[in-house]
Amino acid sequence: MNKKKISWITPSCFIDVDLPIINLLAKDYFIDWQIVVENNQEIDYELYVKSVLKDNPNVQVYFFYLTHRLRSLHNIIDLIRIIKRARAFLPNLYYISAAMHPYGTMMYRLMLPKRNVVIACHNVSTPRGANSEKWAKKLTNMWIRSFKNIQVFSRSQEVILKEKVHGKNILMAHLALKDYGESTIEVNKKEERTFRFLFFGNIVAYKRVDLLIEAANILHDRGIENFKVRIAGSCNCNWEQNYASFIKCPDVFELMIRRIPNEDVANMFADSHVFVMPYQDIAQSGAITVAFRYNVVTLVSDIPQFKEFVEDGVTGLAFQSGNAGDLADKMQWCIENRDVLLKELSVNQKNFVDKELSLTSIVAKYKDFFSKL
């Protein structure tokens, strides 16, 4: 049977989402993969992609480097070039996760056969406190109303999509686990005297890093000393004013306020005991899949979006959203019950991930959906 062909268009920020999917899908499809790299990106994406795909004969990769900001009118010309290249592959279907707002929706609709287009929507609901929240909501609504075939990445986002628009053909397939390779350090967490909590990811308002700082201050005031809080990730707002000024106990914190290179991520999780996500809102989280990959127990806020991934006291822990005191209580419980935590919750988390989030099962959903288009 002849393999079908897919023209796939991905922005550089979602390479780690699409890469494992494409690598496995290529067993059954020929894929032309265009990766759109935004202006002023300094990461060597080409090396990263090649290290995973190797010389996969069923995937041809093309990097398209933008030279202007996304809002620039010049990007309409770039979009035309990207779309023409996608069409020249003569694919059976198009998969687009590069929305390229604000012009992408219009250009894709004008130049591609909508019935053969699958769009990815990572944030059906825009998190409260996100950058340019109102503008993002408008662009997302335009994106999901313009196409029939839509992928979402969590059951909670699927529910929201069905409430917003009707008559859509929906693929719900979870994010694949983010894999940054194996750790190069050997750590025995059971014998580590210091208990380490980790926050990892871009630092933005809705992720409530301020709440984690407040909780750490509370623990310190209680006289608890055998713990560290590592905060790792880039911050586009004023870190010193919005966060650092609230730190009362600097010795407790390990601050890595910068973009974390891919090669450092595995080691960072290797010596961390608990991954903390104090978010007040989220669509779905890529960061939690990193914790799952490295089997680090998660402590999350009790917002609905986390409930399909973390069952409090079974596969992880949850605290009352927005309540620093409750977060501090759960952190203290972790420190005082580390043997129970590391043994039971870690095992339960791994069993959940193996059953629900295996790459094979995720890719099977893509294949089934594509076969019906």
From TrEMBL:
Signal peptide range in chain numbering: none
One GO process term, biological-process aspect: lipopolysaccharide biosynthetic process
SUPFAM superfamilies attached to this UniProt entry: UDP-Glycosyltransferase/glycogen phosphorylase (SSF53756)
Family matches, as Pfam families: Glycos_transf_1
Gene Ontology MF terms: glycosyltransferase activity
Domain of life of the organism encoding this protein: Bacteria
Domain Glycosyl transferase family per the UniProt entry, residue ranges: 186-340
Record keywords: Transferase
Stretches assigned to coiled coil: none
Name the record gives this protein: Glycosyltransferase
Source organism of the structure: Bacteroides xylanisolvens
